[in-house]
Structure formats: C-alpha cells, structure tokens
Design brief:
The structure holds 2 protein chains of 2 kinds. Chain A is an all-beta fold. Chain A has no helices and 11 strands. In chain A, a hairpin with a 5-residue loop joins strand 7 and strand 8. Classes of the chains: A mainly beta, B mainly beta. At the A-B interface, strand 5 and strand 10 of A face strand 5, strand 9 and strand 10 of B.
Chain lengths: 114, 113
C-alpha cells in the first residue's frame, strides 16, 4: 500500500502571493487533515476533510482553504501569504472507524515566505 | 494557551536505560491521548495511544501511563536504543472537538551509545 505523499517538498514565495500544496492520501483512507508546524512548535490543526466535505477547522483565517477530491487526494490553498505562514505543512490521512487519531503523515511541504 | 504541555524540550539517555517522556494537559474533556515520533525530514509517525478509561497501555518497549487526576501522561521506553533518538510529540483529542488532535511542543530524545 502506498503512503501519504506531498508536493512540493520545498517552496519559496513572497508576501501576498498564493500557494497550493498537494497531498495524496494513503490507499484506502477517506479522511485527510492538514496541519501547520512552525519552527519549534507542535503541529497545529488547520482543517479536516471527509468525503470531500470540510468537517472540522482549527483557528485559521479563511484565506486557508482546502479541497478533497473523489480519489481522496487533497489540496491546501493559502491566499495573500504572510511572513508568519512560513512553516512545515503536514498532510495526514486516516480511515474513519479505525484507530482514533492514528494519522498517517506525509513528509510535509516546507513553505518559506519572504 | 497550551492545552497540551511537554515541559522538557530535550532529554538525553544512555543506551539500554529507560527513557521517560512527560506530558501534561489542561482540558478535562480530552479522552484519548497519543504519542508520535518524528525524525528530521519526515512526518510524524504514530507510536502508541491510550484511552482515558485506561491507566496503562503497553506495546513492546513502549508503555504509556495515564494519571487522569493529575492530568498527566508519560511514555516509557525500555530499553532505549540509539534508533529511538527523535522528537516525541504528545497529542490529545476529545469527542466534542471532532477528534482534532491538540499537540504539545515535543521533546527531543537523544539516546547515546
């Protein structure tokens, strides 16, 4: 079974730009979550998608948005980038009904905003 | 407001000895707790979990203890191995919060040969 893959692994943007990060869920998983991990911090929950619908959101502004596709892959979009958006963005997939909180993470996309 | 706290940023242990990583939480609604391990340039990997109805869960060299009255949990690794060197995150969730995970800041464990 394939694991969670994310792209790109690294990218650099400037303030005000927009970015799209992509995630391919682990085979058979129907739920995807996105987390932001700033340097020296634990991951912060951004939102979660289940069956293409957002079903949970953390304390992030609306310029953070997402999509989940029928094949359970996902995108995280961030508009009007700010310097504080520089972080590692982690995608995690899981299967509803199996193992509360047992998420399978990708390697992350490291975003630098200049 | 940090609901899940890992007060030790780092821990150094000799190979073969016990590693004890601590975690405190403030939200009494949390009913499920997990430990994740993270190597550099990799995403976190699930290690072990415990439900609030238990006070201990064991999986091989890893044991998690939960003290609900103290709102404290700990991860014991016995015996510690150099390959255990990583950052360990404590995370918690509650049914009322859509099961989103709230994470601590992590503890960097170094196991010295």
């Amino acid at each position: 079974e394939t694991g969670v893959t994310q792209s790109p692994t690294h990218l650099i943007k400037t303030r005000g730009q927009q970015v799209t990060l992509r995630c391919s869920s682990q085979s058979g998983h129907n739920t995807v979550s996105w987390y932001q991990q700033a340097l020296g911090q634990g991951p912060q929950f951004i939102f979660q998608y289940y069956r293409e619908e957002e079903n949970g959101r953390g304390n992030f502004p609306p310029r953070f948005s997402g999509l989940q596709f029928p094949n359970y892959s996902s995108e995280l979009n961030v508009n009007a980038l700010e310097l504080d958006d520089s972080a590692l963005y982690l995608c995690a997939s899981s299967l509803v009904g199996q193992g509360i909180g047992e998420l399978f993470f990708g390697e992350g996309s490291r975003l630098t905003v200049l | 407001d940090q609901q899940v706290k890992q007060n030790s940023p780092s821990l150094s242990v000799q190979e073969g000895r016990i590693s004890i990583l601590n975690c405190d939480y403030t939200n009494s609604m949390f009913d499920y707790f997990l430990w994740y391990k993270k190597y550099p340039a990799e995403g976190p990997t699930f290690l072990i979990s415990i439900s609030s109805i238990k006070d201990k869960n064991e999986d091989g060299r890893f044991t998690v203890f939960l003290n609900k009255s103290a709102k404290h949990l700990s991860l014991h690794i016995v015996p510690s191995q150099p390959g255990d060197s990583a950052v360990y995150f404590c995370a918690a969730s509650s049914a009322g919060n859509n099961r989103k995970l709230i994470w601590g800041l992590g503890t960097s464990l170094a196991v010295n040969p």
